[in-house]
Amino acid sequence: MILPVLRDAGFLADVATAAPLTASGERFCLWWLGQSGFLLQWAGRHALLDPYLSDSLTAKYAGSGRPHVRMTERVVAPEALAFAGLVTVSHGHTDHLDGETLRPLLAGNPHLRVVVPEAVRDLAAARLGCDAGRLDGLDDGADLEAAGFRITAIASAHETVERDERGRCRFLGYVLRFGRWTLYHAGDTVPYPGLAERLRSFRPDVAILPINGRGPERGVPGNLDGPEAAGLARAARAAVVIPCHYEMFAFNTVSPEAFRAEAERLGQPAAVLRAGQRWCAPGEVGSRWA
Ligand SMILES: [Zn+2]
Asked: Which is nearest to 210 in space by CA: 69, 47, 32?
């Protein structure tokens, strides 16, 4: 089992002590929570992106032909993160929309804003045990302001840009804008025509991209592989790229080395985090502001 660099009380202490550094409002911090989950802190505000902080998939698939053996220990219990004002959910798969993570968050913070693809609003409400009207739905190209963050939805292709019967995208990524910063969190996606150009128009400071790749042997929809993620970040002119979606489940993981090597070859600044690790800008690896 991989141990997070920080977890539980140590992790929470790191989050608490990073805050004073944002007094100018100029600095923001990210922590990798494993899989596609991140905690974002800016100017005393906190957002959670696709948090998966339970063992619900391991339990669901136990004894099946596709066991979801957890590779990395949980960083922190979801109920300890009830200070977050916003959660974004990229799509309906449980490693991104986990009832066992989201229900304690909602219970701990009745004001929590929960942004989901409009196409999975009903599924999300069922997982969270709440009224569908309690959630904020977005579709490709739409945006809203929540908990101090401006959020714009961008279609993702997992592995195609799939739409429901009303034409709404089932898989989304989100561009979050806060202060002078812009962050893109892809959720699950493969490259598709026009994605890089669209992202480039946002001038992303950070692109968070999956790197686990795809292959029929895994039996689940795939994602960017490491070299593709580095290439997409480069094409989108992201100031720094952070890889994710590996080291959570033994059947669906990859080493970040191919990502790292391609990013280096392309001259694309990258930050490869360990679970529970903090990354802040400006001032850390791969920042054009350093
Ligand atoms: Zn996923």
From this structure: 32
